[in-house]
Write a structure and sequence with these properties.
alpha+beta, Helix Hairpins, D-amino Acid Aminotransferase, Chain A, domain 1, OB fold (Dihydrolipoamide Acetyltransferase, E2P), 6 domains, 7-stranded antiparallel beta sheet, globular, binds 2-(butylsulfanyl)adenosine
Length: 679
Amino acid sequence: MDLFSAVDSEPIRHEMEQLAERIDQLNYEYYMNDRSLVSDQEFDAMLRRLQDLETQYPDLASPLSPTKRVGGEVNKSFRQVEHRFPMLSLSNTYSIEEIEEFEARTRRLLDGEVFSYTCELKYDGVAIGLTYRHGQLVQAVTRGNGAVGDDITLNAKTIPTIPLRLRGDYPDDFEARGEVVFPYKEFDAFNRQREADGDEPFANPRNAASGSLKLQDSAECAKRRLMFCMYFMMAPDGIALPDTHYGRLDWARQMGFKVQPYIKECRDITEIKAFIDHWDRARWELPFGTDGIVIKVNQTSLWDRLGLTAKSPRWAIAYKFKAERVSTPLLSVDYQVGRTGKVTPVANLAPVHLGGTTVRRATLVNADFIASFDIHQGDHLFIEKGGEIIPKVVGVDTDKRTVGGEQPAIAFPRRCPVCGAELVRVEGEAAHYCPNGDGCHPQIIGRLEHFVSRKAMNIEGLGPERLELLYGAGLVRNVADLYDLRREQLVGLGTDATIQDKGADNLLQALETSKEVPFERVLFALGMRYVGEVGAKKLARYFKDIDTLLAASEEELAQVEDVGAVTAKAVSEWLNDPHHRAIVERLRAAGLQMSFRQTAAGSQLEGLTFVVSGVFERFSRDEIKAHIEQHGGKVAGSISGKTSYLLAGEKMGPEKRKKAEKLGVKIISEQEYMEMVEG
Ligand code: IVH
């Protein structure tokens, strides 16, 4: 930069610093103190102004700017880094007696010392370590195997409770450890959105938090509103920290970390047990998950004296809460019919309080599940809720069964509870199915819902109510009927004319647009049993068009990668059903895509098989694989005689190279690959 522009940029730099400081402060007040000092619009305006300036003057943009919280940078890969201080785990126990033993042993070993314990929550999330130098966040790493973890710095920066720059006094070099948790409220909202989008919901907040930290798109991570709970601080030799754990966390709070207030200094086992007791009951009122209590010796100078076992310190222990279990009467069993005809038994229970919510229903999975517990009418069932959000039936409270007056066992129905058709159970499968696909209401609606869903035909404006409406009016019985809908049939539909002119136009337009949806998604939308998104893609690539697929035998179908015998049979049966063939023909006539189109540039790589390894400049690994496929090539997982090229990125392991050399497989760089594709 020349002198002139350096002088010129000073006011800009000043404005950017002021904005960043103000935004940091507002964030802090909002996330740490629950205080909004300005309106959302004002806040957004400041953030946008800073973003604009950063785009205009990238040289002046700080890597710790609050704009980084929004994400947007893409993690090409998650670099493996060695922990400066190994991330130890804690010995843990479900038994109060073992906590008593821990306390007695500690007292014996520290005979003559004055000391105390700290009790705090054990956060149920993902452990990470944050390195700060000169008050600035420089790196965030997952626990990994304790010695080596993944660098997730970009994603960590999007978590509002992770300070990017520290406040007040701080050690010049240290590591802050804590747990990234997905607060219940945010998790629920996120899972609801996933379901609305047709994605599988996450089983629990911990898995979801872990998945979020490994997202390639940091903007996606930013949307999830994760939270960081700090619980530990350590520094290299020569950097002084307070000499109690309590004091360290207190200092951390002043630096701007979110340190939960639920920490108590305890003098003896009685106080420890009271703390455990309290949180065992009160834990469900917390806004995030906790799975136990961590007890640490408070005086850090005593830690060395107590030492370490193989992988955990002797100065701390975790008490784990037992999954909460209650028993409640079974009132009745519903049998739900899904879009594939699968019948799932669901228990209606006498409402019971469990883990912070009222449980009224729980799945009984299938006939085998009911038989394995030997569930009878009127039984009391044990229900458990651990880290999982969904309550589970774990047994029958046989003590509550009235002797002699025992009621009959739950008998799985022989007929479909909705349409009355005789249920079938395929050999080797646990589920019962209703075979009356075309005459059974939930199956018809379920198939329509699946067909229009985002990952299938993505037809907007056709939620379950609309579909019911169209079905009720006799306009739609199957997916092909959708494309016969006419404007005059739609306008004024519904008791209070739910569909108006504009709604009808939008719907017809959405149907028109869906005719461009690629063949593989059309196949997925048809809803063949066991054919998910990936399976549909594999079928589409392999058979190329619908006619070849319709002509395929069961044996040919089983040739397709990842299509097993069971799927091949189901697909073959589906394709050979005359009714399904008629629907496919009507969809073809309507103009839906019925052949596989090589997207993008075409087929330069036709007939070539690549193995991809290492880290790349321009692409993430998934992106480069997609790129190969888009250009007609195939991607294989391991090197064999059939491999055409080993596409080697940086940091490729030596074994891959050796194997390629041994088999005479040519090794090419990303640059050479690009030249190959671009000619
Ligand atoms: S202290 C050397 N405190 O539980 C001691 N750990 O197996 C460092 N955890 O890996 C850990 N809440 O991820 C500590 N308040 C808390 C914690 C906590 C959750 C996790 C941590 C650790 C595991 C113990």
